[in-house]
Specification:
444 residues; mainly beta; Methylamine Dehydrogenase, Chain H; 5-stranded mixed β-sheet; 1 helix; 2% helix; globular
């Protein structure tokens, strides 16, 4: 199953940025990459509304050019979005579409980045990075602009895996550098989905495919390649996590059948876990002590694993579900497309209409509740003591964080398809549908 990237006060943010290890300063209210400042979808403070609809707390919405499932990113008063203009829009598995077989466009596609005003959604500029006919097909549910851009506060980075191009721009849309990392076939023709990750002045790409898998680190300022590591696995759609734990920084990558942690500056392998069946769609979640990851497919549930900070060496997940050297693991408990989150002492795992809450430290099940929601592809987010889950119909369930299932609000944006993970910056929340971009903000 494909993961979309459809499938984080000044003092508080300064602490968060030191934790992330970025060498460049990101503004206090920026949302610089997939799943936010720390790459985990969690914010310490809730500022955006808890309730919204098409009529309530909708500051603005704009019709989107082309198609795409990439999340918005935010820098200052600018919102950036990637789009594939000239490619067919994504469709839902739930719609019963008769033909969703992988296809390539008949004509060239414009791979664009659009810059919007945070205040009112006005288009500031739009730039075509490359215009080219993709070599490989994608499934009808995916897009040719699924990879979320990233910004380090000085440059905007845009990656289109379908054509293998990464480019750095300034905030006026001028190109600074570009690199061609190649385009590759993907498992079952699903297409690509792993977003950019930033940390320590570097831009990381995890390109797991059915031909030549690798992880590469570029210098954010110059575009120079710092290191590259070939990988043995095939297609996976998970986005790497730059994990700054209480011992060191790590780049954790979930591949096809294995998970590997790299030293971000050199690419040295810190630890690896093999023996996990199938590929990953969801991305990892972590706190300073542990990181959590897992996978599940459309017809089966995979494992959920916790790894402690400081682990080293090679480890194997055996058929009985035991792993030496890890705090805990669970069989048939992994997430699907939507990535998990850690809020305080608890880990939340979405999957197949059920939300499971675990004690983050030891894996004790706190609750397991069925939700009245459609398919969930967008990753969850949390702000303060609230947890948000968006389904593909535009319904958002708002929960109180903790070890009990408490629904605070239910919100609905109608007449669109939502597979992209939302973005948050200060008092504003952005939901990307396949038709429009929606800005949620408290109305005075």
């Amino acid at each position: 199953m494909i993961k979309h990237t459809r499938f984080a006060t000044l003092t508080e943010w300064a602490i968060g940025l030191m934790f992330l290890g970025l060498s460049d300063v990101v503004a206090a209210q920026d949302w610089p990459q997939f799943r936010g400042p720390n790459g985990n979808g969690v914010l310490e403070k809730l500022e955006h509304p808890v309730e919204w609809s098409n009529e309530n707390n909708l500051a603005w919405s704009v019709e989107l050019p082309g198609s795409g499932l990439a999340s918005p990113v935010v820098h200052g008063d600018l919102v950036f979005l990637a789009a594939a203009v000239g490619a067919a829009p994504s469709v839902s598995f739930s719609e019963g579409v008769s033909d969703m077989r992988p296809k390539t466009p008949d004509t060239p596609v414009k791979f664009d980045v659009i810059c919007y005003s945070l205040a009112d959604g006005t288009t500031k500029w739009s730039k075509t990075i490359i215009e080219q006919k993709p070599k490989y097909p994608i499934h009808g549910s995916n897009s040719y602009a699924t990879e979320t851009p990233a910004t380090d506060g000085q440059r905007l980075y845009v990656y289109f895996a379908a054509v293998g191009v990464i480019a750095a721009l300034d905030f006026q849309g001028n190109e600074i550098w570009r690199q061609d990392v190649g385009a590759y076939p993907t498992g079952n023709g699903f297409g690509t989905g792993s977003s950019l990750t930033i940390g320590d002045g570097k831009v990381f790409i995890q390109c797991d495919n059915d031909q030549t898998s690798f992880v590469v680190a570029f210098d954010g300022a110059t575009g120079g390649e710092i290191w590259r590591k070939e990988r043995s696995g095939k297609t996976s759609w998970s986005t790497p996590l730059f994990w700054q734990n209480d011992q060191r920084a790590e780049l954790v990558t979930c591949g096809s059948g294995f998970v590997t942690s790299y030293e971000p500056s050199t690419g040295e392998e810190l630890w690896t876990l093999t023996g996990i069946s199938s590929a990953f769609s969801a991305s990892p979640a972590g706190n300073k002590q542990q990181i959590y990851f897992g996978n599940s497919g459309p017809m089966s549930s995979g494992p959920l694993v916790s790894v402690a900070a400081g682990m080293s060496g090679n480890h194997e997940f055996d058929p009985q579900g035991t792993i030496t050297g890890v705090p805990w693991s669970k069989m048939q408990a992994g997430p699907g497309m939507s990535s998990p989150i850690v809020v305080g002492d608890y880990l939340y795992i979405p999957g197949r209409g059920i939300l499971t809450c675990y004690a983050a430290k030891d894996g004790t099940v706190e609750f397991k509740e069925r939700m009245q929601m459609a398919s969930i592809a967008a990753s969850m987010w949390a702000a303060g003591d609230r947890i948000f889950m968006l389904d593909e119909t535009g319904k958002t369930l708002v929960l109180e964080a903790g070890n009990e299932f408490k629904v605070v609000a239910t919100n609905q944006i109608t007449d669109d398809l939502f597979w992209s993970t939302p973005a948050i910056a200060g008092t504003s929340l952005w939901l990307r549908g396949t038709k429009r971009l929606y800005c949620i903000r408290q109305k005075s």
